[in-house]
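Could you help me review a protein record that somebody else here produced? Here is the record exactly as it was handed to me:
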Amino acid sequence: MKFDSTVNFALLLTLCSIVLPTITTILNNRHQIKIRKMDFNFDKKFATIEAYIEAVGCCIELNSLTNVSKYNKAKGMLYLYVPKKLRKQISELDACIKSNRIDEAKKLFDDLCISLSDIINQK
C-alpha cells in the first residue's frame, strides 16, 4: 500500500489538530495554577499585615489583655512574611508597646506601616 503526499499531509494535519490543543491546554493549566498560588500567597500576606496593623493600633490606643493577645498572635504571623531587615523594627515596636512608651511606639508604628506598605506594593 502506497501513500501519496496528499494522504501524508492530511494525516499530519489530523495529528497536529489533536496534539497541539492538548499541549496548549496543559501549559495553560500549569500557568493558571502558578497564578492562583501567587494570588493566594499575596492574599494571605495582605491579610496578615492588615491584622498586625490593626492589632498594633488597638494596643497603642488601649493596652488591654485582649488587645495584647491579638497583637501577639498577629506579630507571630507577621514574622512569616516580612524580610529580616524589618524584624528589628518590629522588635523595637514590641518593646515600646510592652513597656507602655506610647509616643515612641506611635513614631515607630508610622515608619513600620510605610515599610509594610512597600512589601504589599511589591506584588
About this structure: The CA atoms of residues 46 and 120 lie 7 Å apart. The longest helix spans residues 5-61. Helices lie at 5-61, 65-78, 84-98, 102-121. The chain has one domain: 5-121.
